[in-house]
User: What shape does this take?
Amino acid sequence: MNRLTDALAPLGLILLLLGAWELACRMTGVPAYFLPPPSQVAVAAVEGLPVLVPAAWNTLSVALVALALAAACALALAILVGLSPLIERAVRPLASALQVTPVVAVAPLILIWAGIDHPERAVIALAVLVAFFPVFSGAVTGLRSADPDLERLFDLYGAGRLQRVLRLRLPAAVPFLMEGLKVGAGLAIIGAVVAEFAAGSGGVRGLAWQILDAGNKLQTDRMIAALVVLAVMGVAVHAGLERLERAGLRWWRGR
Assistant: This one.
């Protein structure tokens, strides 16, 4: 019963908000190009499904590739940091600078380096930059979370740095790494969309291009429909990673 209530509670709130939105649009007579009612957005979503689905897949595929690349780079760098405190002191300032630099600010430069004829490379690179830091931060934090008693046991047996990282600290970092991946997945989608906006070219036909095209034509219902698809896509990716996290942690703790 509790699971059913937990599932119906957000659905009920969404329906309540949609009903209020529909009622407000009809009572105030607001122009459809300014704020269309949900019913009109639903019609636009159904009619635009043949276009929105490929666009969503383009954006999602870029985000997943970027997340995989960011995770591989972040984990490799985190292991190096775990092996040497000197490497950590050298890398930390650069990683922090990378985190606080707005992706929109570096997008034109990345587009030039990737080549105007290959905007998809720039989109992946920018998404990797956005998704990198949460995964790296989670991995580094996890590598420091090993049980101190086990650390002393490894000292007693004379374990080397690499053995300590791979056999003790890396397994202890799994929960933190999964949390970083969940945050990084959302940021990878955001980075992909922002990069598509920055590219401003039909060469990258993701959801951002659909939003730009609809906005130029004052088709607000199409814009909101694309935003809804983007939100659903982000929720689905996050839910998938949560299920993977629960299954992985259950298996790991069972061992």
Remarks:
- The chain has a mean pLDDT of 80.
- The CA atoms of residues 175 and 246 lie 10 Å apart.
- The first helix runs from residue 2 to 28.
- The chain is about 85% helix and 0% strand.
